[in-house]
Amino acid sequence: MPRSVPVSIDVPAIGARSSLVPLGLNPDRTVEVPPVDRPMQAGWYEHSPTPGETGPSVVLGHVDGGGKDGIFARLHELKPGDEIRIGREDKQVARFVVKRTEQLPKTDFPADQVYGDTKEPELRLITCGGSFDEAANSYRDNVITFAVFTGVVGASDSG
Amino acid sequence: MKLGRACAAGAVLWAVALPLTAGTALADETGPAAEQPSSPVAEQPSDPSAEPTETAPPSVEPGDRVPGADAQAQARARAADAGAPRAQVAVRPEGAPETGGGPQETGIGLAVTGSAVAVAAAGGAVLVLRGRRAGAR
Predict the structure, then answer these.
(1) Number of domains into which chain B is organized
(2) Which of A69, A122, A146, B127 has the largest CB neighbor count within 10 A?
């Protein structure tokens, strides 16, 4: 698919639906995340391909925030074959299916798997998981869903 | 006179024979070289005129090939750099994403909310008791 900025995400299997805000880099070169006081807001990493373009498009969302569940609180439940729909600015909806979901320590974040080049359009959904490290004020793990592009489903009905 | 003719004839013979002997000598000298790996050009060592052209290519060819190959390799590298596809993720973030507010935030929120409710309830109770006492008097 040609480049078109994503505007919404819908993951029916876990009841996750949100508009998408563009995310860049923090001054320390870590990836920006949506505001933690808006935990149901997901965001698209703007230096990654747009969903449907060849390459790994990266979408991030909180597991929780402000005392509430986040948009990706149930991301760990996604199984192979589950559907993810991404609405784009060009009114096309890119459809992906889950290939696998992994929970990995943040100290061993698989940057190559997440950000490395791919032959086809792919999608990554990322949130936090595992136990909470009080000292570091951070979850110890990331939950990452890897999905592959299957086609366009039609006009976007959200976003 | 006879001596002069004899000398002249000898000189002519010597002049005619010299190239033949030189060729033989050259052939003898190139004998060991012929033991080196043979090539179509090396199989013609007896021709003196071929010697310069035979030796020139080895001394020229490497010189020509190396700079030429370097230049070509550099040109290819430049072309590859210019045409090399960039990474699909244009800027790769460092570290792992921080996509969680943390459960203790929930605990703190609940504690603050609970405390506020408790204080309000206690205040209300005090007011009610004072009202009853005032009413009783």
Answers:
(1) 1
(2) A122
